[in-house]
Amino acid sequence: KNEVEQSPQNLTAQEGEFITINCSYSVGISALHWLQQHPGGGIVSLFMLSSGKKKHGRLIATINIQEKHSSLHITASHPRDSAVYICAVREETSGSRLTFGEGTQLTVNP
Amino acid sequence: NAGVTQTPKFQVLKTGQSMTLQCAQDMNHEYMSWYRQDPGMGLRLIHYSVGAGITDQGEVPNGYNVSRSTTEDFPLRLLSAAPSQTSVYFCASSYSYGGQLVYEQYFGPGTRLTVT
């Protein structure tokens, strides 16, 4: 079993829909990252959080440390949101490393 | 700022050949790392560095060497390429605190390597 599990693996939505991507992990962590990988392959960091909730534009990330779970929400989705969304955790015992999930492929149709 | 740059973008090697993937950043980041991305496996850490002269192994270091002689550069060397090293390679950098990765990472555009 992977230490970081994402669901769903693939998600197709219609423009305007509210989208949720989930990340569960099995180890103690000091931080969780959400990343976006564009169709061209480039990777950008969206959020880094260790508690509560963060918001940037139409993107919202939440984390529940006790339940070892995080969600990434996209409101009013748009075709340009189509990308792979990757969850990664910084473990308490290895603060110099990230462990990554396999990613969620999101496709938003017009 | 150019951010994190990687060269080359694409490379084809024959089994047994050696090569160096270049990575540079102009943000004065202490932390630099190399990942490989394979279908169905997510990103995996190959080697990382918390400052000039300091490197350490990640999850999948075999077959790769690194050095960090300057803050800006972190080259990845493939000693004797094997088909199992066919992958997309990403370099990333970040500020760090006490060697700990406490800030977001900035990724390079990637190098697609094929070993035949």
Q: What is this structure's SSE topology?
A:
The complex is a heterodimer of chains A (110) and B (116).
Chain A: E1 4-7, E2 10-14, E3 19-25, E4 29-37, E5 43-49, E6 52-56, E7 59-64, E8 69-74, E9 83-91, E10 99-100, E11 104-109
Parallel strand pairs in A: 2-11
Antiparallel strand pairs in A: 1-3, 3-8, 4-5, 4-9, 6-7, 7-8, 9-10, 9-11
Chain B: E1 4-7, E2 10-13, E3 19-25, E4 31-38, E5 42-51, E6 54-57, E7 64-66, E8 76-78, E9 87-94, E10 106-107, E11 111-115
Parallel strand pairs in B: 2-11
Antiparallel strand pairs in B: 1-3, 3-8, 4-5, 4-9, 5-6, 7-8, 9-10, 9-11
Q: How far is the first residue's CA from the last residue's CA of chain B?
A: 36 Å
Helix content of chain A: under 10%
Largest interface, with counts of residues having CB < 8 Å to the other chain, equals: A-B, 22 and 27 residues
Radius of gyration of chain B: 13 Å
The 3D shape of chain A can be described as globular
Helix content of chain B: under 10%
- How far apart, in Å, are the first and last alpha carbons of chain A? 36 Å
**Strand portion of chain B:** over 45%
Strand content of chain A: over 45%
Total strands of chain B: the figure is 11
**Number of distinct helices of chain B:** 0
**Number of DSSP helices of chain A?**
0
